[in-house]
Specification:
Blueprint (H helix, E strand, L loop, with lengths): L8 H11 L4 E5 L8 E4 H17 L7 E5 L4 H12 L3 E5 L5 H11 L3 E4 L5 H4 L9 E3 L9 E2 H7 L14 E6 L9 E5 H18 L6 E5 L6 H14 L2 E5 L6 H8 L3 E4 L1 H14 L2 H8 L4 H13 L6 E4 L6 H10 L3 E5 L9 E2 L12 E2 L4 E4 L4 E5 L6 E2 L3 H7 L6 E9 L6 E6 L4 E2 L5 E2 L1 H9 L4 E7 L6 E7 L10 H20 L7 E6 L19 H17 L4 E3 L1
Parallel strand pairs: 1-11, 3-4, 3-5, 4-8, 5-6, 6-7, 10-11, 12-13, 13-14, 25-26, 26-27
Antiparallel strand pairs: 1-2, 8-9, 9-19, 14-15, 15-16, 17-18, 18-20, 20-21, 22-23, 24-25
Length: 563
């Protein structure tokens, strides 16, 4: 039995199973008009124990990698617990990945078995699964001929007792989404993942004080460290977090209203889409006037949050990528305590968070307990975290490159710290800096944040390596795109973008000023390869796609062009 000092995630889980067996832990929509299912701690662990027994019966070596390809669902949690109890390591694959990437991750990790779960594009992904790899289908999986989870659980006895894992055992390999090049497998041990998660749980308890349980919605990809750490692992350690799952994009608001989350975590692109959805119903100017009214403003703000399903949220977080300061300010004006945090796959998302007293729009907070941070002479943020990775799977060379001689992880992000309290601001990526023909470096991220704050803009990219000046490409807001076929709307967009260009350039030094704004011909998405599964822009891929047209755009007169 573990002492408190060396308690690991599974020890916490066994405690909840024994102490609160009938407490509902997971709530899963079944699709359509089917009944929503609740799983108690006892039911969750019973299924996980039965699957762990089945996995062990297959004779895999200790530490074998078992893969999960699925959207978020209750059986993802159960499968991970089964993998851990059986003595193995989890490899989760983003549910939107191509067959090529699925194949790469399965082969690189040497996966011994694949759980196939809730998926939208399985027909396209299936060819990437190596022939002969054993497969088990979750209850919500597409129709297959694979052995099903339910049939295995029905005929298999549960493993008994409290299967133990060593602190140094690898709990999971998290493959980064690969915005540049091949994904890397980041190894996390039970020891470091647990210590980081304990810090997260303490942080959440200090911030969100509710009577009874906290409620969260799990919908960001569990294959990504952000959701895996702050939702799944935090709920496993805390034991008093009720996790709800979303059914589809179309039912998302209904699912949110079912969950009534007290804690809600999202990414900048989705916060922006929520805002644009509000603006589609009520123009910003009109909403702004209403919010300025003393009593009515509070009523309107609450109505907006209720429409989003967030009127119960005590804390809301944004992570994974920079979020425009104006967007944070807008949500706070509605009464939503939206804060920005900062973490990476390599530190198990345990790095920085804003506090009620130390925060500022555009800043990502102060170090979480146990985290050390410094800025290198080159301006790079370097971090020591309790959630430090063991290393990159099969790449000791990259692991060595990733750390300084004294053990700090080199994040690749540029940043500044406020002298008074250590508040951190991300100013861009070290490798994203580029030189124009003027010979000066341009940092794209801060400029993109200015562009993204405009209600007509969904996403932007600033580039222009070796050109006379930088340029910006923007994707128009979703509600606006279908209307640009109307000449009057197109002219209005053209005029607004020209004004935006002037406004942005006023706030930039001459060497960073943009020559033009180019309007993208189609939205960037995970499906067309221009966004990573966590909705970060794939810079190189977008730049390569537009490269043949660059000379033509630079030769044209005018401030705004349509690609």
């Amino acid at each position: 039995m573990s002492t408190k000092h060396d308690k690991l995630i599974l020890d916490y889980v066994y405690k909840h199973e024994a102490a609160t067996p009938e407490k509902v832990y997971l709530t899963q929509p079944q699709g359509g008009k089917k009944k929503v299912l609740d799983y108690t701690w006892a039911q969750t662990l019973d299924q996980a124990r039965r699957m762990a027994n089945n996995l062990q019966s297959r004779g895999f070596e200790p530490g074998s990698r078992i893969a999960i390809l699925s959207k978020n669902c209750a059986h993802f949690f159960m499968a991970e617990l089964a993998i851990w109890m059986a003595g193995y390591t989890t490899v989760a694959i983003f549910p939107t990945e191509t067959a090529e990437t699925v194949k790469y991750v399965l082969e690189h990790s040497g996966a011994s078995l694949l759980f196939v779960g809730k998926l939208d594009t399985w027909d396209q992904q299936a060819p990437g699964v190596p022939a002969g790899l054993p497969r088990i289908a979750f209850p919500l999986a597409p129709e297959t001929k694979y052995e099903t989870w339910d049939s295995i659980v029905a005929r298999t006895a549960p493993v008994k007792g409290r299967p133990h894992r060593a602190p140094t055992d690898i709990a999971m390999i998290i493959y980064t989404s690969g915005s540049t090049g091949q994904p890397k497998g980041v190894m996390h041990s039970f020891e470091h993942a647990t210590r980081a998660t304990e810090g997260m749980v303490k942080e959440l308890k200090n911030r969100v004080k509710v009577k009874g349980e906290n409620r969260v919605m799990s919908y960001l990809p569990l294959a990504h460290v952000f959701e895996r750490a702050w939702v799944e692992c935090a709920s496993l350690v805390d034991g008093n977090i009720h996790v709800y799952f979303a059914e589809t994009l179309e039912t998302f608001v209904k699912d949110l209203n079912r969950a009534k989350p007290t804690i809600f975590i999202s990414v900048p692109r989705l916060w922006l889409k929520f805002q644009q959805g509000v603006f589609a119903k009520k123009p910003p100017e009109k909403l702004n006037k209403l919010l300025n009214m003393p009593i009515l403003g509070r009523i309107v703000a609450n109505k907006v949050l209720k429409g989003l399903g967030l009127n119960h949220a005590k804390m809301a977080g944004s992570g994974s990528a920079p979020i425009p300061a104006e967007l944070i300010a807008w949500y706070r004006r509605l009464g939503l305590n939206l804060i920005e945090g900062y973490g990476m796959t390599e530190d198990f998302a345990y790095s920085h968070n804003s506090t009620p007293t130390i925060n500022a729009p555009g800043c990502v907070g102060v170090p979480l307990p146990g985290v050390q941070v410094r800025i290198s002479d080159e301006g790079e943020i370097q971090i020591k975290s309790p959630g430090r990775m063991v290393g990159y799977y099969k790449r000791p060379d990259l692991t060595e490159e990733a750390f300084t001689a004294d053990g700090y992880f080199k994040t690749g992000d540029r940043g500044e710290r406020r002298a008074s309290d250590g508040l951190l601001k991300i100013t861009g990526r070290v490798k994203e800096l580029f030189k124009t023909a003027k010979g000066k470096y341009v940092a794209p991220a801060p400029i993109e944040n200015m562009l993204n704050a405009h209600p007509m803009v969904e996403l932007s990219l600033v580039s222009g390596v070796g050109q006379v000046a930088a340029y910006a490409m923007v994707v128009l807001a979703e509600n606006l795109r279908p209307k640009v076929g109307d000449p009057a709307v197109k002219a209005q967009v053209q005029d607004e973008m020209a004004k935006l260009l002037k406004e942005v350039n006023k706030n930039l030094p001459d060497y960073e000023q943009l020559k033009m704004i180019v309007i993208a011909p189609e939205p960037w998405s995970v499906e067309n390869g221009f966004l990573t599964p966590t909705m970060k822009i794939r810079r190189a891929r977008i730049e390569n796609a537009v490269d043949p047209q660059l000379d033509n755009w630079y030769a044209k007169k005018g401030a705004v062009h349509w690609a």
